[in-house]
User: What shape does this take?
Amino acid sequence: MNWPYAVFPCLLVVILCLSVPSCGGGFRTVANAGDVNGTWNLSLDRSNVSVRETELSLTQEERYGPFSGTSSDNATLTGTLNSESIVITLNNADGSVTTLTGVASKDWKSFSGTYTSTGSDGSGTWSLPKSVPAPAALSVTPSSATLSCSAGESQTFTATGGTRASYVVGVTNLSLVTLDTSTLTTNGKFTVTASNACTGANGSIVTLTVTDTSTSDKVAATVTISNP
Assistant: This one.
């Protein structure tokens, strides 16, 4: 048997199979594909003019399954998915019905298409991006600490909220302390240690300012130097 020629067709089948999700591969499948649970922001446009903005809260029992929900302007809704295609029927508070047909984006974070309505919405285009919750407010704990100069004491602070990868820390009176920010952008922690140069600085205040450079939000903490 000519082994190279015998093995090649098998390898070709495996490669093709891996590229098709239904064949057991699925490496191209988006993690959230078919899942519409959550909050979405609906915008209806007629002749490039916005005619309706509302928030949809969707509930779905299984991926690609039918779903239902409500809107922030008191409509109820039902919907279906067929692969990337979506149909949503809005039963509006005034008795009119608005029907949306469209497709999912490649990352399944938004939908768009065309709509028709029996009411004042008329007909036009629509978009439905997933609502992204605002990040928590920037904070740091503890908000203060006292460090003994003679003992070279240390205190670890933890920053939370905002965008961790964008954290930076500023320090006043840096000659009185040393600052370790090696894990600041990975777990939000930084350590302040009283330095040898703090002799005679009893009662001095060192101010630490954590800044989220992506938003310019800032929060402060203080270190009081004790001697001894």
In short: The chain has two domains: 29-129, 139-226. The longest helix spans residues 3-18. The CA atoms of residues 20 and 26 lie 6 Å apart.
